């Protein structure tokens, strides 16, 4: 990431901070700030923001997926798998959640579960080359 991209993300975080000051019960503001922290590589702050978003709206599947990505980046694959599984429970037709869970299983060395998840992602979205690449 270059310096300009980093500055843009820091500016976004400032904007989300201001939005949260004005409306601290809006779960999407915390999620968006979590995404910005994740993109900066600050995974712990990302997780804290996803935690708050989930606390405010525990039925939003994408929040669990986002937190799973942060856990995966921290190499906490068991927590990542747990979050991806919760996202799948909330929206079992979202292919990316299976793909992401497959990545976490692969990172754990559990190739059988990884392949099963990639297969499900491909079943749900057979036109996504990325899923085939991951399975390969």
TrEMBL record:
<keyword id="KW-0677">Repeat</keyword>
<feature type="repeat" description="TPR">
    <location>
        <begin position="95"/>
        <end position="128"/>
    </location>
</feature>
<dbReference type="InterPro" id="IPR050498">
    <property type="entry name" value="Ycf3"/>
</dbReference>
<keyword id="KW-0802">TPR repeat</keyword>
<protein>
    <submittedName>
        <fullName>Tetratricopeptide repeat protein</fullName>
    </submittedName>
</protein>
<dbReference type="Pfam" id="PF00515">
    <property type="entry name" value="TPR_1"/>
</dbReference>
<dbReference type="InterPro" id="IPR011990">
    <property type="entry name" value="TPR-like_helical_dom_sf"/>
</dbReference>
<dbReference type="GO" id="GO:0009279">
    <property type="term" value="C:cell outer membrane"/>
</dbReference>
<dbReference type="InterPro" id="IPR019734">
    <property type="entry name" value="TPR_rpt"/>
</dbReference>
<feature type="repeat" description="TPR">
    <location>
        <begin position="61"/>
        <end position="94"/>
    </location>
</feature>
<feature type="repeat" description="TPR">
    <location>
        <begin position="27"/>
        <end position="60"/>
    </location>
</feature>
<dbReference type="GO" id="GO:0046813">
    <property type="term" value="P:receptor-mediated virion attachment to host cell"/>
</dbReference>
């Amino acid at each position: 990431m270059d310096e300009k991209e980093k500055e843009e993300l820091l500016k976004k975080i400032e904007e989300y901070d201001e939005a949260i000051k004005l409306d601290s019960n809006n779960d999407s503001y915390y999620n968006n700030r979590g995404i910005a922290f994740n993109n900066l590589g600050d995974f712990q702050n990302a997780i804290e923001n996803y935690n708050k978003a989930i606390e405010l709206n525990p039925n939003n599947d994408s929040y669990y997926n986002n937190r799973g990505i942060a856990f995966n980046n921290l190499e906490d694959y068991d927590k990542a798998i747990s979050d991806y599984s919760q996202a799948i429970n909330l929206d079992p037709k979202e292919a990316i959640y299976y793909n992401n869970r497959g990545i976490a299983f692969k990172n754990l060395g559990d190739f059988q579960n990884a392949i099963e998840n990639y297969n499900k992602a491909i079943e749900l979205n057979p036109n996504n080359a990325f899923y085939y690449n991951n399975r390969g």
